[in-house]
């Protein structure tokens, strides 16, 4: 069983984040989500019998989240759930929301919380492992609040990793990724960086204020970065 590390001296700044008021994100999503929650015996995703160890992995586009997640999986036995990959799979499967997701990703915007959370939930429920890396989620304060409301028991992540990387480094990495992603072009990258700054940094600050954020220098070689990651996980074993 993983335990909480006792020293948090390496945690990030404590700048305050501003929470959105429920009125600002509209009633419809809450109707949908609370209906889903009430269908679940015991409420949210998890129960007292099953409360997995959750790590959120955050950082700007190209900060190295996916790359480091693969290595964490190999070394620490987590299951990796990339919210972006789950959404891209919906596009390739031509699902009900596929066209909307493609349009949103191509513009560098954020897919509605109910869609992303449903995919994450399905992936968690179909996995027996009890240690998850949730990569690239929550993207916004609205995502985070929606996740907390629907998950209920064990909603708070045990760890949040933030790969901190200068924008010019991230842009260079994304533009040389060469995986055929519809959003790996300079115009969309600019939009993704804007979304990261305005929507994701408040989430990161929220977790910093909660004392669960580990800020990792995302520059240098993949090996150097992984050493910094290991220092975090080794403190939890
Ligand atoms: N330390 C590194 N040095 C140089 N290139 C790297 C490093 N880490 C990752 N890369 C490369 O940079 C690109 C982006 O990395 P990765 O896909 O892991 O980022 P990401 O944070 O998951 O991005 P996105 O949010 O766009 O999915 C990949 O081509 C990857 O191989
Ligand atoms: O929670 C999420 C995660 C992702 N998106 C959309 O997908 C792209 C790509 O995500 P990556 O994590 O970089 O693979 C992102 O720019 C968003 O458009 C999302 O809406 N919500
Ligand atoms: Mg990625």
What does this entry look like structurally?
The chain is an alpha/beta fold and 237 residues long. The protein has nine helices and five strands. It has helices at residues 27-39, 65-76, 83-92, 98-106, 113-125, 141-151, 167-175, 186-210, 222-234, and strands at 53-59, 79-82, 131-135, 159-164, 213-217. Strands 2-3-1-4-5 form a five-stranded parallel sheet, sandwiched between helices. Adenosine-5'-triphosphate binds next to helix 2, helix 7 and helix 9. One of its GO terms (biological process) is pyrimidine nucleotide biosynthetic process. Belongs to the adenylate kinase family. Keywords: ATP-binding, Cytoplasm, Kinase, Nucleotide-binding, Nucleus, Pyrimidine biosynthesis, Transferase.
Largest sheet entry: 5 strands, parallel
**Bound small molecules, which ones?**
adenosine-5'-triphosphate, ligand LLZGTKA7, magnesium ion
Radius of gyration: 17 Å
Mean pLDDT: 85
Shape verdict: globular
Give unreliable regions as ranges.
4-42
Organism: Heracleum sosnowskyi
GO molecular function, one term: AMP kinase activity
Keywords: ATP-binding, Cytoplasm, Kinase, Nucleotide-binding, Nucleus, Pyrimidine biosynthesis, Transferase
Pfam family, one: ADK
List the helices and strands and how they pair.
Elements (H helix, E strand, L loop, with lengths): L26 H13 L13 E7 L5 H12 L2 E4 H10 L5 H9 L6 H13 L5 E5 L5 H11 L7 E6 L2 H9 L10 H25 L2 E5 L4 H13 L3
